[in-house]
Q: What sequence folds into this?
């Protein structure tokens, strides 16, 4: 029988291996930028055309390469950064595998120009599909220029899987941002289709953060530093009030290498515990420096996942550093033992008729007379106290007691429902007061049977749930989940008709985004217009909002759009959804949660229930969460059976 196992041709092996390193144009940007930093460059220029599909070019003034090194750099597993196994445990460079240039050259047309400072002429190499087609001397400046053209030209299947230009450009901006943030001492510039996107001069980290992320961070940065023998933490965190609805502006760098770590992110959030508004995320740029022997970065070719030798210690130090910074900058609550501890007087339970202010009831003589009345034998107060202490059931209130109680509620500004005629001794229906007292008020009156009308059978519980009696038992509805289902079906219908209603703002308002968020906004702008958003570009990374969808509350447009962008960016599900489906789901979730914990009137509760059951799938949200729970009568009876 003939042998069937054979070595793959070199060009085919290179194309297969390139799939791990070069997944999209952003992968090329990352590898070439890191090579420029490792080469000691002080100026780096990135030029992109057609979102990197046509051209990705990196020009740097680093150390450059000799003709021999230039040729060797294109071979697989050829590198200048490690020599032995021991070097893997003391890596200080960003690259070390020797795979990047070989992988890029296997799936693109590459033009490499390079020159060392001590040489008179440089070298020009032309490569196509791992094959060097030309090598010759050339006049060029010190440093290296690598132009990667027509990425995946020889692997059309991979090229067809690339996303739209907006998506690919967003990933390129992410990689550029990571390298630029970690190296503020280097001048970076970025050109997209011959237009300048960034021009970042060398400077301090705080200046680089503001230049990359926007002027809004100028007043929000708080320095964070903690030095220990095991780990050093340095960088900046954001003030709690500047927290955003998106997670995008969170960066960890370990030994100057950008990493992703849910574990360390949890350490930062633990330090912010109790300080952040609901569903918001803090900003941070934190640099961790520790012995390379204590980490393993050789986990994945992208090198964004690393393993720590002692994760718990790293977690504790990061959390302590952030918490200390919050305290130093007076962003965390603290006890002031030298301040005035005299609290404001408690408001009286009832005010006397004709009194000018509540303060009149707190005069010493008024307090003394109140105490005397309470202690007087036979007084109502005395009877109440003795009844409570004896443990016997209190007597039914008299008409005078009812009038006193009504006066008490009127003094608090509450309305008092009129007495209803006596009902037969049957189980009363569930109902709700028309104007319920706030949670902070005195004990509520017993629930009365409400009059017939909209919402008369619906009760709001904790401003989160609706209790609806039905023939078979009781139904509990989650307000936010119900709104999400209703809005989602409404938005899907609007997208199908492309004629959703819009409320025009009296004055257009400008909103500025980070370049990454603005790229996402451009990508979904047509779908947002179909949903009722009205906006136009108004300068770099800025839009002028002219109108919002009809059902969207008129509030901070920036927070609404940032939350929508974040949900669209991180949306993941068991099935592959088209873009319009994602936008409808994200907007429904964002608008529904923005009006959470709202007190509803009877008509609003009834309308919410009616609109929910008019939906095609009323029982679940678009992502599969329950909107309602039904408790059967038998289940309710089981709760009260004798054990």
A:
């Amino acid at each position: 029988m003939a042998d069937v196992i054979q070595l793959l041709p070199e060009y085919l092996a290179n194309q297969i291996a390139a799939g791990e390193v070069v997944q999209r144009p952003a992968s090329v940007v990352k590898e070439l930028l890191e090579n420029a930093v490792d080469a000691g460059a002080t100026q780096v220029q990135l030029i992109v055309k057609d979102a990197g599909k046509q051209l990705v070019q990196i020009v740097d003034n680093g150390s450059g390469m000799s003709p021999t090194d230039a040729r060797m750099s294109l071979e697989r597993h050829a590198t200048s950064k490690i020599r032995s196994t021991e070097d893997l445990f003391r890596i200080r460079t960003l690259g070390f595998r020797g795979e990047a240039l070989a992988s890029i050259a296997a799936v693109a047309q590459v033009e490499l120009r390079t020159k060392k400072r001590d040489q008179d002429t440089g070298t020009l190499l032309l490569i196509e599909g791992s094959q060097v087609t030309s090598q010759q001397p050339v006049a060029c400046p010190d440093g290296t220029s690598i132009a990667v053209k027509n990425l995946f030209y020889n692997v059309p299947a991979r090229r067809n899987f690339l996303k739209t230009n907006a998506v690919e450009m967003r990933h390129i901006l992410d990689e550029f941002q990571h390298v630029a943030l970690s190296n503020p001492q280097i001048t970076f510039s970025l050109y997209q289709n011959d237009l300048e996107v960034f021009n970042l001069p060398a400077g301090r980290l705080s200046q680089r953060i503001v230049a990359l992320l926007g002027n809004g961070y100028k007043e929000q940065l708080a320095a964070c530093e903690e030095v220990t023998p095991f780990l050093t933490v340095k960088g900046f965190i954001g003030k709690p009030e500047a927290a955003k609805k998106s997670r995008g502006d969170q960066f960890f760098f370990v030994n100057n290498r950008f990493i992703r770590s849910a574990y360390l992110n949890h350490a930062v959030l633990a330090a912010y515990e109790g300080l952040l508004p609901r569903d918001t995320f803090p900003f941070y740029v934190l640099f961790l420096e520790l012995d390379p022997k204590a980490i393993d970065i050789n986990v994945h070719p992208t090198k964004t996942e690393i393993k720590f030798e002692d994760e718990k210690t790293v977690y504790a130090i990061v959390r302590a550093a952030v918490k200390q910074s919050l305290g130093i900058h007076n962003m965390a609550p603290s006890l002031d033992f030298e301040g005035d501890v005299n609290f404001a007087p408690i408001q009286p339970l009832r005010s006397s008729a004709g009194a000018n202010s509540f303060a009149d009831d707190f005069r010493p003589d008024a307090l003394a007379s109140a105490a005397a009345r309470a202690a007087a034998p036979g007084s109502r107060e005395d009877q109440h106290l003795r009844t409570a202490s004896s443990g016997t059931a209190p007597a039914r209130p008299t008409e005078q007691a009812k009038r006193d109680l009504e006066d008490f509620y009127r003094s608090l500004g509450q309305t008092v429902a009129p007495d209803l005629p006596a009902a037969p001794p049957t189980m009363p229906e569930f109902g709700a007061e028309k104007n319920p007292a706030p949670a902070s008020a005195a004990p509520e009156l017993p629930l009365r049977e409400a009059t017939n009308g909209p919402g008369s059978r619906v009760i709001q519980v904790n401003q989160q749930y609706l209790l609806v009696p039905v023939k078979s038992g009781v139904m509990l509805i989650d307000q936010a989940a119900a709104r999400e289902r209703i809005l989602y079906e409404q938005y899907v219908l609007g997208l199908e008709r492309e004629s959703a209603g819009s409320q025009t703002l009296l004055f257009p308002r400008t909103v500025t985004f980070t370049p990454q968020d603005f790229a996402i906004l451009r990508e979904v702008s047509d779908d947002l217009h179909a949903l009722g958003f009205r906006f136009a570009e108004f300068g770099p990374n800025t839009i002028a909002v002219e109108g919002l969808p009809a059902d969207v509350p008129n509030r901070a447009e920036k927070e609404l759009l940032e939350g929508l962008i974040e949900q669209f960016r991180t949306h993941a599900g068991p099935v592959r959804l088209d873009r319009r489906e994602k936008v409808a789901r994200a907007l429904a979730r964002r608008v529904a949660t923005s009006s959470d914990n709202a007190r509803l009137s009877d008509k609003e509760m009834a309308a919410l229930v009616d609109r929910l059951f008019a939906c095609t799938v009323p029982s679940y949200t678009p992502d599969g969460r329950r909107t309602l729970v039904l408790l059967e009568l038998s289940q309710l009876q089981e709760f009260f059976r004798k054990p």
User: Anything to note?
Assistant: Residues 479-497 form the longest helix (19 residues). Confidence is low (pLDDT under 50) at residues 334-395, 420-456, 571-576. Residues 386 and 392 are 9 Å apart (CA to CA).
